[in-house]
Amino acid sequence: MSNITIEKMIAHDLNLGNAAPLFFRQVINLVDSEVTSFFSKHIENALKTKQIRMCTFTYENASVLVDTIEISNDVTNDQLFVDNTINMTQSLFNNMSGAASNGALIFILYIDARTDHRYLAILKMDPNKAIRLDRTTFSFTVQRDILPSVNERLHKCAFIKVDNNLWNEEVHLRVLDKQQNTGEISKYFLLNFLEAKTCVDDKVMTELVDSTIIDFAVEEGFISTTAEKLDFVSRVDRLLFSGKVVDLERDLESLFETYVSGEEDLKQKIDRYKDKLLEKRENLHFIFTAEKNPTVAVYADEGNDIKIQFPIRYNNNKVKVDYEDEDDGTKTTVIRIVGVELKEKFKH
Predict the structure, then answer these.
(1) A Pfam family name for this chain (predicted)?
(2) In the beta sheet, which residues pair with residue 109?
(3) CA separation for the pair 259, 217 (Å, rounded)
(4) Do 158 and 121 form a contact (C-beta atoms < 8 A)?
């Protein structure tokens, strides 16, 4: 079941190369469940795509921000929704003069069950084989039950929180531009049309992943014994090594593939973990630079008289710990430190 409930939707034809866009003067009838399902799935998938960027509006009077806040103050007013989406479409048309990429601009008012908040999705859709906009009736028809991939052409999206106090929030909107090979957002869409800028909180993302991924691994049955947990923690510590650029989708594949069988199962686990993160925090970015002190593994006797500690990322590679049974029933701990010559240090 989708987390996205669509409340209302409208589409305007950008009509580039002509004098003005073609505007539709009424909201789209949402009786076609296939269409609403298509867009609900697309929104859910887009919010979990690694190219998604957290952004803030640059100015308090940015036109898209002002139009969205007006909608938030009267969400049941269809005429206001129509008028303000026309304003935004005209603005994008003005900023795209000379651009070759035509298509429709779609506005969707929806509620996300994970946060229980309302959002405005702005989707710039080029003509594609998955869904067709009838330019005479401004209604949609799903041609094939597929969702656009990174290479498909439903590629520019903004997801704005519908809140009359939005300017005071730490993050105002999430933006995705699948057309840009660099993963960055095109200037005309982010800077000129949305009047926004990206913002990244690497420390928050690092802490969120670090604090949730072990419990997720236990819930999914990846790990159960102490030795398995220790090995998994050491893998996570290498993934979140301070200064490392984390591409969460790529790095989760590498981390999870040992514990699952098959690509489909792997994708489901990664999507499930992303959903867990979205339940914890609505503002996520899936590419970030890790900021984390190394987790320290400590081996000690019961009285804490003998102790050895080291960054856990060295466990089972640079530092190898084994146990041997003695004839008298006791155990001996054998520690091998590979490629390192230890020096004596005395502490008084």
Answers:
(1) NA37
(2) 8, 120
(3) 9
(4) yes
Sign, Cα dihedral of 117, 123, 129, 135: positive
Give SS3 for 187.
helix
Q: Which two tokens stand for residue 153?
A: 């052409």
Q: What is the mean pLDDT of each run of 10 residues along the chain (348 residues)?
A: 90 84 87 86 88 91 96 96 96 76 86 93 75 71 54 72 93 81 69 89 89 93 87 88 90 92 90 89 85 83 84 82 86 88 76
Domain boundary among 198, 226, 261: 198
Question: Given phi > 0 = left and psi -120 to 50 = alpha, else beta, which region is 341?
Answer: beta
Quote the pTM value. 0.72
Total number of domains constituting the chain: 2
Write out the residue range of the structural domain in which residue 276 sits. Answer: 202-289
Q: How many CB atoms lie within 10 A of CB 127?
A: 11
In a domain, 275, yes or no: yes
Distances (CA, A) of 35 to 32, 82, 131, 141, 288: 6, 20, 8, 7, 34
Q: Which of 237, 259, 289 is the last residue in one of the domains? A: 289
What single-letter DSSP state applies at residue 315?
B
**The Cα angle at residue 122 between residues 50 and 9, in degrees rounded to 5:** 125
**Is 161 in the same domain as 233?**
no
